Every structure is written in structure tokens, then in C-alpha cells.
């Protein structure tokens, strides 16, 4: 079945460091890909998305490119801030399956000032 | 507009007891989803309502879990009797009906209910 694998956390970085959180997926169809973020004490929020190959989703300085050839959707940010500390979830939805979202395990990111 | 609200935010119960979680979706959203995250694991789909009907309940772990959506508005998820492995964070999400050109209708998540079964 469809699945998402993302790098294990926690990830601890210093402020202004470069961030990469790896995500790969398996899907029978042609999924849409997402990154969700959960800040402390809050619900999940959509961070960015991409719906077709080579699309780049971006938001709040974060970017991820839909790579069909490597089935990947790695999240990157050039310079992280303390406020980026959160749990990040890679996810996919297959429109042929009622858009049910399938999530990865989440990666906790901790940014040190 | 008000977001998706869940109640309670935390619940601690003993094994064998009953707990009912509530979700109020965004007004006008036909789709309502329940998800669960067990500590350190994936957020897993439990079920999907379209209005008051269960569209997909393939993720419900067993018959101790009962979900309802009265009149297509708020939803409840009852666990009876609760077991230790039911501990986790239960998320509710809602979205408007249908998809557009293959793009999904964005999900709006609540803050979740953290359930601890001791």
C-alpha cells in the first residue's frame, strides 16, 4: 500500500543553519505530496504542497520539490529560526482514494538560539 | 472563521473505562476525518465522514471504537472499553466537499485530544 518514510528525529540545529528533512514515498497512483507542521500546543497545519512531478512547493522560507524519479519530497530551508522548532510530517494523498492523507512518522526539529 | 475544535484537549482514564472525544468541524465542511498518532509513530487514518455518512472506516482499529456524526455537524469518537494501546493523540480534520481538477480540498486540523490510558 501507499506509504511515506521520513528521516528519524529529533533534529537539533543552531539558528541560521541549513535544514534538510528527507522524505520518500511509495504510491500506486500519482499522489499529491505535502509537508505539514505541528507547532507546540497547536494542531497540524499545511506548510506546503506539490501536485505533480517537478513542482516546487514553498512557504515561510521552506521548499520541497516533487521528484518522481526518486520518489522523494525533501524539505529544505536555507536559514532556520528558533520559531521553526516543531514536528514536521511528510504526507501524500492519492486522488483515486478519496484523498485520504497518509502521513510519515514525523520529525521533531529543535532549533537552538 | 472558527477553526476545527476538539474537546477535551487531554484525557486520562483507566483501562476499561469509556471515553468520548468530540470534534466540531469548520461550519459548512462536509468532510470530517479522524486520525490518530500513537507515540513516535505515523499519524494514521481512522475514518472519513461525508456529512453524516461514513465514507471510509477502514482505519478503525476494532469494534471498541465507535464514531458518529449527528446531523452532519459535530462528530464524536467513543472508545469503550479503553485499552492501554489506545493511548495517543487523536486528531480531527475537516474539508469542504469534493475535489477540484484533481487537487484536494485542503484539510484543516484541530489541535488534537491527547488520550492517556493507564
Protein described:
The complex is a heterodimer of chains A (about 110) and B (about 120). Chain A is mostly beta strands and about 110 residues long. Chain A is about 0% helix and about 50% strand. Chain A has strands at about 5, 10-15, 20, 25, 30-40, 45-50, 55-60, 60-65, 75, 85-95, 100-105, 105-110. In chain A, the strands form three sheets. In chain A, strands 2, 5, 6, 10, 11 and 12 form a six-stranded mixed β-sheet that branches. A four-stranded antiparallel β-sheet of chain A has the order 3-9-8-7, with no helix packed on it. Chain A has a two-stranded antiparallel sheet with strand order 1-4. In chain A, β10 and β11 (about 100-105) form a beta hairpin. Chain A starts with a strand and ends with a strand. With about 120 residues, chain B is an all-beta fold. Chain B is about 0% helix and about 45% strand. Chain B is built from no helices and eleven strands. Chain B has strands spanning about 5, 10-15, 20-25, 30-35, 45-50, 55, 65-70, 75-80, 90-95, 110, 115. In chain B, strands 2, 4, 5, 6, 9, 10 and 11 form a seven-stranded mixed β-sheet that branches. A four-stranded antiparallel β-sheet of chain B has the order 1-3-8-7, with no helix packed on it. The radius of gyration of chain B is 14 Å and the shape is globular. The interface of A and B includes residues 32 and 102 of A.
